[in-house]
C-alpha cells in the first residue's frame, strides 16, 4: 500500500501544476502574439510560427546533447509513428496566429471555447474514452454561452471566424493524437515535440517564401526596434513552452482537461483586452503587470 500511496501525491501535484503551467504559457503567448501582429503590425504570422518551431528544435536538441532529456534518434519509422501529428502541429500554430490577428481578443477567446466539445468528441472516437452525462451537459452549457456571445458581435469578421474554428479543430485533434502517441516506450513527450517541429519547419518555410510572407517579414521596418526584437524572441521561446506545457497537461490529465483550462483563461484575456482598448498606447509590459 505504501508504494501506491507514494505515487498518488506526486500525481495529484503534477496534474494541478501542469494545468496551471499550461494556462500561464497560453495566456502570455496570446498577449505577445497580439502585440506583435496588431500593435507593431508585424505582417508575417507564418514567420512567427517558424521562429517558434526553430526555438523548439534548438532547445530540445541542446538539452538532449547535454543529457538533460532523452528521446530516440531518428529512424525511418518515426514519420509513420508521428502521423498525423506534424500536420496538426503546423495547422494549430498557423491558424492560431492568423486568428489572433483577425479578431478582438474577447471574441477570439469566446470562439475558442468550441475546442472543448470537439475534444470530447475526438476523445470518444479516437481514444475510446467515455464521459458522464454531467460532464457532457457542462460542456454543452459552455458552448451555448459561446454561441450567445458570438451572436452579439458587432464587428463580424467571417475570415476571422473561419480561422478560429479551424484552430479549434486543429487544437482538439492535436491534443487527442498527442495523448495517443507519446508513449514513453516509443517517442515520449520530448520526441513528439522535437520531431513534430523538425518535420514541419522546412515545408512551412517553403510556404512562407512562396506566398511572399517571408519577404514581407524581411522588409518589416521594426527590426531595429529593440523592444520589438525582445518580444519576437520571447514569443518564439513561449511558443516552445506552450507546446511543452500542452503535452505535459495532456499527459498528466487528459486532452479535455487541457481544453477546459484553455477556456478558463478567458477572464484574464477579457480584462487585459478591455484595458488595452481604453488606451492603445499601453505597452505590453504594463498589461502584463496588471494581471
UniProtKB/TrEMBL annotation:
<protein>
    <submittedName>
        <fullName>UDP-N-acetylglucosamine/UDP-glucose/GDP-mannose transporter isoform X5</fullName>
    </submittedName>
</protein>
<feature type="transmembrane region" description="Helical">
    <location>
        <begin position="16"/>
        <end position="36"/>
    </location>
</feature>
<feature type="transmembrane region" description="Helical">
    <location>
        <begin position="42"/>
        <end position="62"/>
    </location>
</feature>
<keyword id="KW-0472">Membrane</keyword>
<dbReference type="GO" id="GO:0016020">
    <property type="term" value="C:membrane"/>
</dbReference>
<feature type="transmembrane region" description="Helical">
    <location>
        <begin position="228"/>
        <end position="249"/>
    </location>
</feature>
<dbReference type="InterPro" id="IPR050186">
    <property type="entry name" value="TPT_transporter"/>
</dbReference>
<keyword id="KW-0812">Transmembrane</keyword>
<feature type="domain" description="Sugar phosphate transporter">
    <location>
        <begin position="18"/>
        <end position="265"/>
    </location>
</feature>
<dbReference type="Pfam" id="PF03151">
    <property type="entry name" value="TPT"/>
</dbReference>
<feature type="transmembrane region" description="Helical">
    <location>
        <begin position="190"/>
        <end position="208"/>
    </location>
</feature>
<feature type="transmembrane region" description="Helical">
    <location>
        <begin position="161"/>
        <end position="178"/>
    </location>
</feature>
<feature type="transmembrane region" description="Helical">
    <location>
        <begin position="135"/>
        <end position="155"/>
    </location>
</feature>
<keyword id="KW-1133">Transmembrane helix</keyword>
<dbReference type="InterPro" id="IPR004853">
    <property type="entry name" value="Sugar_P_trans_dom"/>
</dbReference>
Amino acid at each position: 500500500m505504501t508504494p501506491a500511496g507514494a505515487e498518488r501525491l506526486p500525481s495529484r501535484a503534477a496534474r494541478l501544476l501542469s494545468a496551471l503551467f499550461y494556462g500561464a504559457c497560453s495566456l502570455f503567448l496570446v498577449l505577445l502574439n497580439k502585440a506583435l501582429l496588431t500593435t507593431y503590425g508585424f505582417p508575417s504570422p507564418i514567420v512567427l510560427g517558424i521562429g517558434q518551431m526553430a526555438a523548439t528544435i534548438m532547445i530540445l536538441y541542446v538539452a538532449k546533447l547535454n543529457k538533460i532529456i532523452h528521446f530516440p534518434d531518428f529512424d525511418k519509422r518515426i514519420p509513420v509513428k508521428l502521423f498525423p501529428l506534424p500536420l496538426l502541429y503546423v495547422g494549430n500554430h498557423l491558424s492560431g496566429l492568423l486568428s489572433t490577428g483577425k479578431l478582438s481578443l474577447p471574441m477570439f477567446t469566446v470562439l475558442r471555447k468550441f475546442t472543448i466539445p470537439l475534444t470530447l468528441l475526438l476523445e470518444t472516437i479516437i481514444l475510446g474514452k467515455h464521459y458522464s452525462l454531467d460532464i457532457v451537459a457542462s460542456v454543452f452549457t459552455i458552448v451555448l454561452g459561446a454561441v450567445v456571445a458570438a451572436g452579439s458581435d458587432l464587428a463580424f469578421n467571417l475570415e476571422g471566424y473561419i480561422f478560429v474554428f479551424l484552430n479549434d479543430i486543429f487544437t482538439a485533434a492535436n491534443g487527442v493524437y498527442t495523448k495517443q502517441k507519446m508513449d514513453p516506450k516509443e517517442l515520449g513527450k520530448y520526441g513528439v515535440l522535437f520531431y513534430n517541429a523538425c518535420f514541419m519547419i522546412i515545408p512551412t518555410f517553403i510556404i512562407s517564401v512562396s506566398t511572399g510572407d517571408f519577404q514581407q517579414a524581411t522588409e518589416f521596418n521594426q527590426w531595429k526596434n529593440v523592444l520589438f526584437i525582445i518580444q519576437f524572441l520571447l514569443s518564439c521561446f513561449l511558443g516552445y513552452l506552450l507546446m511543452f506545457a500542452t503535452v505535459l497537461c495532456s499527459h498528466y490529465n487528459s486532452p479535455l482537461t487541457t481544453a477546459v483550462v484553455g477556456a478558463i483563461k478567458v477572464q484574464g484575456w477579457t480584462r487585459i483586452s478591455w484595458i488595452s482598448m481604453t488606451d492603445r498606447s499601453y505597452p505590453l509590459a504594463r498589461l502584463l503587470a496588471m494581471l
